[in-house]
Amino acid sequence: MSSEDNLRKFSSLQLLNFCIGFFGLQFAWQMRIILSGPLTESLGASPLLYGLIWLAGPVTGIVVQPIIGALSDNTFTKFGRRLPYLFFGALFGAAGLILLPKSEFLSNLFGANHASWLALFIAAIFIWVIDACVNAAQGPYRALIPDNIQKNQHALANSFLSFAIGLGSVVAAGTAPFLKWAFNYQMSVDAQFTMAGVAFILGVLWTCFTFKENVPSKEAMVEKKLEAKKSASKPFIQNVKEFLNASPEVGKICLVQFFAWIGLMSMMIFFTQYVVHILYEVPNTAQLAENIIATFANKQTEAQNFSSICFAFFNLICFVIAIPIAKMAEKLGNKRVHAVSLLSMAVAYLLIACMPSKVTVFAAMGLAGIGWSSTLALPFAMLSKYIKEGTEGSAMGIFNIFISAPQVLVCTLLAWFINKSTYMLNGNLNNHWDYAFLFGALMLIISALITLTVKEKEE
Question: How far apart are CA 452 and CA 94, in angstroms?
């Protein structure tokens, strides 16, 4: 990889083109977020079991991203350093998305019935495959920015990724509700997952064929390979220590992400279930007989569509505000803008938990989109100033630990607490999914307070 002086400056059009693969990646991830809850619940998953299945994301993030990041740092091919990982991650991830809703059909090949553990086990495997592949693609994709783009454009480039994430999520979440509204056609869960798989692979293929990685000279490549071998020989824990010891501020930025992502995933994991069970008052269907479940089918479909609309609005705000947030951060500083954005999301959570109405929840999800947009860009912009040249992939992989690890707490402890927090709804058992938003608001406030203590490194 060449030095900073040799990195090119990207135009807005080039940055937009760079983001197309991330659009496909987020399209896939958003569909998995919205529909995996109802899908696994229909196969008999309790809130706790659903949370444990969601462990796929953080566990693969903790394990896969650092490994893939380090491998991509050590990869030197004519196809690039990062792009091969994007391609294979998208290929296998798309296959998992297409097969996930067919879990029950696949279990029936073994003679299993609807409520069998085999169908749920197969679904869990596909969810783990999808999450592993998304993580395998995401880390190297993020590393393309410090690899190829000048430092003074890092905040802008990350904001363009936020733009792509928001747009991809809007299209993914909004397609089924739009078709129902415009043509009275209800898209099946199977079709929505297939659409997500196709978007994932096509978006990443576009990036692989149109984005040219910064190719080092032969002399620089030899030098980088020697550096890579030296880095690869270090124990992983030593690389983590070197990452954290780069500056005291790196540790603070990691804590910012740690608490922010506890808050974020409290919503991401449980929002659809909240809408179905709290807002639309559908009882816990995992505990009901099939003939009773059928009476709630239309209401549940309506609730899932409303959840998709809310996610679409949430991400619409994310991508609309992505570039303005970057411009504001350039003038006011990353930490100030990020702290205010996190606090706006905390307020949104409190509104959702305490004022459960369709209008309030819809508006609150738009407000929360401000914090989401900021989280996808500004912490990475703050961190990128401390990354040592040549270690971009491993640095992003290590940083991802502070995104993935807190999700384990949400998938286990918070899921367990919700599982235990039950009440009777019209004679049927239900869970307090609203507790996720009270807990998430507290975590976001803590993250905002830590953000204000960060001393940003000046150019």
Answer: 40
Residue with tokens 């998995």: 32
Note whether residue 86 is domain-resident: yes
- pLDDT more than 70, % of the chain: 88
Residue 217's CB is within 10 A of a number of other CB atoms, namely 12
CATH number of the domain enclosing 69: 1.20.1250.20
Residue of 82, 86, 169, 166 whose CA lies nearest to 134: 86
On whether residue 160 sits in a domain, the answer given is yes
> CB within 8 A of 354, min separation 6: which ones?
none
Enumerate helices (H) and strands (E) in the chain, giving the number of each.
Answer: 20, 2
The pLDDT tens digits for 346-363 are 999 999 999 999 999 999
Phi, psi (degrees; rounded to nearest 5) at 8: -85, 155
Q: What distance in Å separates the CA atoms of residue 260 and residue 245, rounded to the nearest whole number? A: 22
Cα Dmax for the chain: 74
Q: Distance between CA 285 and CA 293 in Å, rounded?
A: 6
Residues 3-36: b if buried by 16+ CB within 10 A, e if exposed: eeeebeebeeebbebbbbbbbbbbbbbbbbbbbb
pLDDT 10s digits, 224-248:
556 655 555 556 677 677 777 777 8
User: Do 186 and 176 form a contact (C-beta atoms < 8 A)?
Assistant: yes
User: DSSP for 435-449?
Assistant: HHHHHHHHHHHHHHH
CB 33, CB 25: distance < 8 Å: no
Structure tokens at 217: 């000279």
Q: Which helix (H) or strand (E) holds 228?
A: helix 218-232
Single-letter code of the amino acid located at 391 = T
Tell me, yes or no, whether 459 lies in a domain: no
Q: Is 233 exposed, middle or buried (0-12, 13-18, 19+ CB in 10 A)?
A: exposed
Report which of 316, 302, 293, 328 is spatially closest to residue 368, judged by C-alpha positions.
316
Q: DSSP string of 36-64?
A: HHHHHHHTT--HHHHHHHHTHHHHHHHHH
**Domain extent at residue 412:** 4-451
Q: Give the phi and the psi of residue 386 in degrees, each rounded to 5.
A: -110, 0
| Residue tagged 């918070």 (tokens) | 414
pLDDT at 429 over 90: no
Report how many domains make up the chain.
1
Distance CA 128, CA 93 (A): 10
- Does residue 71 form part of some domain? yes
Question: Which residues are CB-neighbours of 420 under 8 A, at least 6 positions away?
Answer: none
User: What's the whole-model pTM score?
Assistant: 0.77
Distances in whole angstroms, Cα of residue 349 to Cα of each of 210, 248, 265, 314? 40, 31, 12, 12
